[in-house]
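Shipment paperwork, digital attachment
Item: protein structure file
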Amino acid sequence: MAHIESVTIEVADTATARHFYTTAFGLDAEIRLRPAESPSSGFRGFTLALTVAQPATVDGFVAAAVAEGATVVKPAAKSLWGYGGVVQAPDGTIWKIATSAKKDTGPATRDIDAIVLLLGVADVAATKRFYSERGLTAGKSFGRMYVEFETGPITLALYRRRALAKTAGVAPDGTGSHRLVINGDAGPCTDPDGFAWVPASVASTS
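Attachment content:
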């Protein structure tokens, strides 16, 4: 079974971005950074998400992100599926912080239950087939709408690009680089939507 050990995000200032991710989210090994090599504008075609236990923890992470310079894209609120909000990190990466719970069962914590990399793709079925052929095992699958793979430390999921942009609260259009590299053992390869994989052992880091 293929795993994702970390993701590398291209940023303008690696030191500033490292401070943000360690201070706001408590992330270190899971997020690697390198200087931006290619320009991009608009939606980059992916989001990252932190799944947590309860609404108070969502609010805590959102507040910490804003305190370190993030912008609120969608304020945290209840939904059919639970409670969550969306922020954009100072480097431009879109993050969703969410829980399936609608009520708190205790004080807020800094615990993260899961990290999810959600790719916005043109054809969910075709991209699912691409990854299945490279050893990824699908856990959840809802036809041509959504697929989630069992990929270890960071969960990989696929969603249609326009639907992903809508849930993130941004326009779906974008040009240029994704400014993201997936570090795992399914590559080196590039998927149908241009997302690149490199072996985790050779991934760049800040």
